[in-house]
Structures are given as structure tokens and as C-alpha cells.
Known about the structure:
Layout: H1 6-14, H2 16-19, E1 41-45, H3 52-68, E2 72-76, H4 83-90, E3 98-103, H5 104-113, E4 125-134, E5 136-141, H6 150-159, E6 165-168, H7 174-186, E7 191-194, H8 198-207, E8 212-216, H9 217-224, E9 229-234, E10 261-268, H10 273-288, H11 290-299, E11 302-303, H12 308-328
Parallel strand pairs: 1-2, 1-3, 6-7, 6-8
Antiparallel strand pairs: 3-10, 4-10, 4-11, 5-8, 5-9
Helix pairs in contact: 1-12, 3-10, 5-12
Amino acid sequence: MTFLTKETIVKKIIGTSAFALVTSALVIGPASAQDYPNKPVTAVIQMAPGGPTDLIVRVIQQKMGEELGQALIIENKAGAGGLIGIKNVLSAHADGYTLGIATGSSHGVAPNIYENLPYNPTKDFRPVGTLVMAPGVLVASKAAVPDCRYETFIKKLKENPGEMKYGSAGIGTLAHMTGAYFLAETETDMLHIPYRGLGPAMIDLQGGSIDALFDNISSARAHLKGGKICALAIQSDKRLEEYPSIPTYAELGLPQLNKPTWYGLIARAETPDAVILELNAALNKTLDSESVANLYKGMGVQPFKSTPEEFSALMQEENEFWKNVTEKINFAKLKL
């Protein structure tokens, strides 16, 4: 499996001269935060169980709890394209006991597609650290693409504009917008069917109710073994070692779609510096764990450590990327 290194990505985002600055530690916060944590910490997942966000966060649950000395509790609060979960974190106390999950959807896509987004990704939250870099994968029902070939899929799309259907985790999610970007770049059309998470969408894909899904390899891998769906393209610079038969988008003439996504932990903006440092240290130690690394490798994703400052730079780059995409595809902003 080939990914860009963390250093390469961060230097690309903020420039080599500034790279040294983002590795500096935060100033230690008030004394009241020094006994953190003294009770369980909750991570709110804004997507349904069984989807990539859920699976990726659950890998760190036990080990990070051990590093913190307190249990890490997982709560799924899906709906409204992830907004319900994000708002839940926003309404919690800024004490580090309720964490959120930042994704390309919440901190890249959403700010560029909603007129009245009920949160500001940079002002309302502060980054704790990244979890993984994860390649997205285009999967299709074998009922729609019996030979599992991308060329067959595209041919069918062009011959039947607007008749085939693709699912997503909801309007405005990364799966939805990746699909919209794909359709614009290939000059094809499909009907978008939003779900409350990729897990329910995958069930309908296997049942033949929808034809395609822009999923994450971490959640699609188990279903690929079932024989009812097949992978047509992967977001990666090179074919993954674990999935050598899946061509990259670049091989298929769409290098602009070769953009793996990321996942990370966030907290309320007013969370004390000392708490953020404690969480970041526990998270990075967790990602150093061999058992966690092996689980992620089996999912087709790569552990991706960062400082809070590095994660902030990554989120800013993601926001700019989707700003350019929404402008290119003339996406009309939505109202909540």
C-alpha cells in the first residue's frame, strides 16, 4: 500500500519553511485541566454503525482508553449528513470529555455546500490529531456490472443517462460529493439516493436497489468478499498491496480523483491546551501500537499521526479543495 508520508503532506500544505513551526507544542493550559481525565471520554460518531467513520474510530477505542486511563465510549448520532453528531459535540462542555470526529465531509465539504451551516469548522472546534489516511473506492453491484470492469460501468452510464442510482451517507457527505465530482469529470449522470450512513447504503447495494456507491475501502472490504459487489476504482497513487486487482483512478484517466481522505479527532474550541495535549499524546501512542497498525492495515488504511497544528493545516487544505470542486461543478448551495 503506497501513501504520501505525513511530512510530505504537511510540507505540501503549509510550505517547508513553516514545517518546523507546526511541530511545536501547545502552551500548557490552566491547572484545573491537570487531573484530566478523571472519568470516561465519549467520542461522538456522526455516522451510522458499520460505515467507514464508525469502523475507523472503533479500532482505537480500547487502546486509547488504556492510554488515557479511562474508558473511551463510542456514541453514534447519525443523520442530516453528519450534522446531528457534530451539533451534539458543539453543545457539550468544552472540557475534553466529549470529542467529535472530523472528516473530509464535516471540515471540507460541508462548509462549501451549505449557506447556513450551524457550525464554523475552524472557530467552533480545535483539532486533536489525525487517525488515518483512507483511500475511497468506487463499488458497484454485480447485477449492474457483471464483469466488474470500470469500462463496462462507464459505457452503461453513458448509454442510460440518469437511470442508474448511486447511494451515499446523506446529502452533503463525502460519498455524495465524491459521486457528484465523479459524474462531472466523466460527463455522466446518475440518480443520487441519500441514506443515514454508508452501512444502510451498502445493504441496498448488495440487494440491487442501487447500482453504485462511493465508499471507503475500510468499510467496503468485507462486502467485497461476499461476491455481490465489485470494486471498480481506488483513490490511491498506486494499487494497494491488499487489493492488487483494483485499478487507481489515474490508470482510468482520472488522476484528479486520486485523493485519499482522512479522519481525526476534534474537541470544542474552548477546550484547555493541557487537555488537547493529553488527548493528542494518547492518540499518537495509540497509533504507534502494533495491534492498531495491523488492524488498520487489514482495513486498507494507514495510521496517520499529527500534531494539532498539522491537523489544522490539513483541514484548511481540504476546505480549499472542496471550494474549488463545488465551484467547478457549479454546485448550488443548500439550506438546512
